Amino acid sequence: MVTIGRLSDMFGRVKLYNLGFAIFAIGSTILYAITYLFTGTTAVLLMIIFRLV
């Protein structure tokens, strides 16, 4: 939390909030698309990887 506070002071709270929201939105969209594009083990592995984001 200390690191995020320092980054927030350097770059601005709103910019970091928007960046976090964008990363979350992109990750959620990818997880949604994986279920339709891939099947089996590949889908499971990709879902695990993108959930870490």
Automatic annotation (TrEMBL):
SUPFAM superfamilies: MFS general substrate transporter. InterPro entries: MFS_dom (IPR020846), MFS_trans_sf (IPR036259). Keywords: Membrane, Transmembrane, Transmembrane helix. The keyword Transferase does not apply. The chain crosses the membrane at residues 21-50. GO terms for molecular function: transmembrane transporter activity. The keyword Metal-binding does not apply. Residues 1-53 form the Major facilitator superfamily (MFS) profile domain. This is Major facilitator superfamily (MFS) profile domain-containing protein.
